[in-house]
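Retry 2 of 3 after timeout on previous attempt. Resubmitting structure tokens to design endpoint.
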């Protein structure tokens, strides 16, 4: 996943970030892969763009862990697509991960918010 705020720059996000984003997206309702990518992009104000080469392995991993499940559906344009939905176990995992992210965010905010020596 690469942020798109500064074109040409690529930032490696912490491991597990994509999993949390996918699980959160699926809390809003069932979605196919392309829809998940679009929701992450639009809800991040176009800063986060998930590449298909990252998304589908993550979806398969989450499915193996039983945090999501997938069913084949017919899309609006009559194509077969896999529709993903979060499971009860996935919701439980997301709650735990969100707590860790909030703690990490607060810790980083504390460091970045501290005055720099020599600044007036």
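Retry 2 succeeded. Sequence:
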């Amino acid at each position: 996943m690469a942020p798109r705020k500064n074109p040409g720059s690529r930032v490696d996000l912490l491991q597990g970030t994509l999993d949390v984003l996918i699980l959160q997206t699926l809390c809003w309702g069932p979605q196919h892969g392309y829809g998940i990518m679009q929701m992450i992009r639009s809800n991040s104000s176009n800063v986060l763009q998930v590449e298909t080469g990252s998304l589908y392995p993550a979806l398969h991993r989450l499915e193996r862990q039983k945090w999501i499940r997938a069913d084949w559906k017919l899309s609006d344009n009559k194509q077969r697509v896999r529709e993903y939905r979060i499971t009860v176990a996935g919701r439980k995992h997301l709650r735990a991960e969100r707590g860790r992210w909030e703690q990490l965010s607060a810790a980083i905010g504390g460091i970045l918010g501290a005055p720099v020596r020599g600044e007036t």
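Attempt log closed. Confidence is low (pLDDT under 50) at residues 7-11.
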